[in-house]
Amino acid sequence: MEPKPLLGILLIAVGSIGAASFYVPFKKVKKWAWESYWITQGLAAWIIAPWLFALLTVPDGTLMQIISDAPSSAKWWAVFFGALWGVGGLTFGLSIRYLGVALGQSVALGFCAAFGTLIPPIVAGESLFSSTSGLLMLTGVAICVAGITVIGYAGALKNKNLSAEERKKAVKEFALKKGLIIAVFAGIMSACFSYGIESGKPIADAAKNLGTNPLYQTNPVLIFILLGGFFTNFVYCVFLNIKNGTAKDYISGGGGIFFNNLLFTFLAGFLWFMQFQFFGMGKSQLPLSMSVFAWSILMALNIAFSNIWGIFLKEWKGTGTKTIVVLLIGILILILSTFVVNL
After folding, report:
1. Between 192-199 and 72-99, two packed helices, what is the crossing angle to 10 degrees?
2. pLDDT tier at 180 (50, 70, 90 boundaries)?
3. Total count of domains within the chain
4. How far apart are alpha carbons 113 and 117 in whole angstroms?
5. Domain span holding position 267
């Protein structure tokens, strides 16, 4: 298949819009605690969507054969890295909860972009100090940290310029220090998704061998990665349901609230899943020499679109011109880092 770089980038951009938008439907959820609506969207994003899209995109009747033909080691490694990514996904949700869509996603995704690029070569045993590409990757990480520092400073200015009431109005549970710590951890752990895809390549090869269009060959891999992620999140959310007495959320409030919340959490879940559906499609259209850019392109676009949402949601309203300028400089540095690591 002849590579189509422009189409590949456009497909990744479509997925990125979904990823940057997934938290917005949560604003329509009524009377449910965070842990209740988080795991409900996870059911849609990490269990239903991957199976549904895999069934729709592989040749009829071949999905179970693909799973059977793929090496057991590839499936287990994909689940393992998915479980590690699940910790990142869980804390990613918390970072947005405490920092808002714009700041939370910018910090977490900045780390995710850099470490998602570094993890595969490190695990493969490559020395990052002995090659130009390795040194560029390390430079990219340094630039990423600089960008995160600048955005953190913007967050500190926001915290200083707004009253407690204004901060609560912009982001209901805004907590800068706690949010930044969680966002950094979320970004590092979320990068494990990148290596989950790499370790799941034999599954994608099995799909391709059975006639799956290269556009969709990653879809069966997502079943295993996201299964691991769902397990991690499920355990923690059930723990919170029990600890906080919120297990009754699912049955209290009447059928109207239940179906309203189910609709919007499932919408959030499917929007979230779109990033990896279109990421796999877009990466398949890139030439081999450019495919290493795919993860960085996804993260860079996620940062851009999430901050556009942050502006629409008025998360930075009233913070002043200086704060906005500092924020934009930090975003530009982060986006630069995602491309430097792959020069």
Report:
1. 160
2. confident
3. 1
4. 6
5. 5-340
